[in-house]
TrEMBL record:
<dbReference type="Pfam" id="PF07883">
    <property type="entry name" value="Cupin_2"/>
</dbReference>
<dbReference type="InterPro" id="IPR011051">
    <property type="entry name" value="RmlC_Cupin_sf"/>
</dbReference>
<feature type="domain" description="Cupin type-2">
    <location>
        <begin position="40"/>
        <end position="103"/>
    </location>
</feature>
<protein>
    <submittedName>
        <fullName>Cupin domain protein</fullName>
    </submittedName>
</protein>
<dbReference type="InterPro" id="IPR014710">
    <property type="entry name" value="RmlC-like_jellyroll"/>
</dbReference>
<dbReference type="InterPro" id="IPR013096">
    <property type="entry name" value="Cupin_2"/>
</dbReference>
Length: 266
């Protein structure tokens, strides 16, 4: 059985995955005003994954705290940028219609917990308090779409505002003290993800590692004049998961694709 045949038969591991073991989503950045008067998303960082943006509509800015200190980068259609683990990032929606394509390294890791919001220290230092502040109610908890959307939006806005509160204090410290002011946040972030991280290996193994190993094999075969893998060429597609068309993410309303449910075309 070829890889495309196995994928068509429902063998998830036979699907080659999105290029590079990444995930892609479409993001409409929140236009809700924040405590400092700006509209935008929830400041946060990733502990193991690099994230990239391609701006497709609107104007805005990306505020970051990293080893370079505080920076603010203007966003407009066509802007491409990416940032590595540990970079605190905050999207600001200046025009009110900022939309991005988001490419996330290590598909599945952010959903498995590789994201830490910049809450005030008392919340970051208490795993139970952090979980309560971060939770968004499930779509299925409500009798109708209207009440579900309202409750989910309220929870997303509340956690966004709490993350902005902590971020503004942290940004002031970074401006005064330099990147060393991030040390406490990094320590708290590691503490929050430590127990989850042991379960992240399978995402890496199924995604970027498997694809890198496949490429290694293809290059070695081609160098020997072999090209058997070319006979397994195929086109794949993926649908949106069940439920609402867009979901409340950390930075805005997300449209995602179910890459685990990918299937060959034709």
């Amino acid at each position: 059985m070829t890889a495309p045949e196995a994928a068509a038969a429902g063998h998830v591991d036979a699907v080659p995955g999105f290029p590079g073991g990444t995930a892609v989503s479409h993001l409409r950045v929140y236009d809700w005003p924040t405590p400092d008067g700006l509209a935008g998303g929830s400041p946060h960082l990733h502990t193991a994954s690099t994230e990239g943006y391609v701006v497709v509509r609107g104007e805005g800015a990306l505020e970051t705290l990293s080893s370079a200190g505080y920076t603010r980068t203007a966003l407009e259609p066509g802007t491409l940028l990416w940032f590595t683990p540990g970079t605190v990032h905050r999207l600001v929606n200046v025009s009110g219609d900022l939309e991005l394509l988001v490419v996330m390294q290590n598909a599945g890791l952010p959903e498995a917990g590789d994201a830490v919001l910049t809450y005030p220290p008392d919340v970051l230092g208490d795993a139970a308090a952090y979980a309560r502040a971060t939770a968004i109610p499930a779509w299925t908890e409500f009798p109708d779409a209207e009440s579900a959307y309202a409750a989910m939006a309220a929870a997303a806005r509340q956690r966004r505002d709490l993350a902005v509160e902590g971020y503004l204090r942290l940004r002031d410290r970074v401006r005064r003290e330099g990147p060393g002011a991030l040390d406490d946040l990094y320590e708290a972030a590691v503490g929050l993800v430590r127990d989850k991280a042991a379960g992240w290996h399978h995402h890496w193994e199924r995604g970027p590692h498997r694809q890198a190993e496949a490429t290694r094999g293809h290059i070695a075969d081609l160098a020997e004049g072999e090209g058997a893998h070319l006979h397994e060429s195929a086109v794949y597609t993926a649908d949106h998961p069940p439920g609402p068309a867009r979901r409340n993410g950390m930075c805005g309303m997300l449209q995602v694709w179910d890459l685990d449910g990918a299937r060959p075309v034709g």
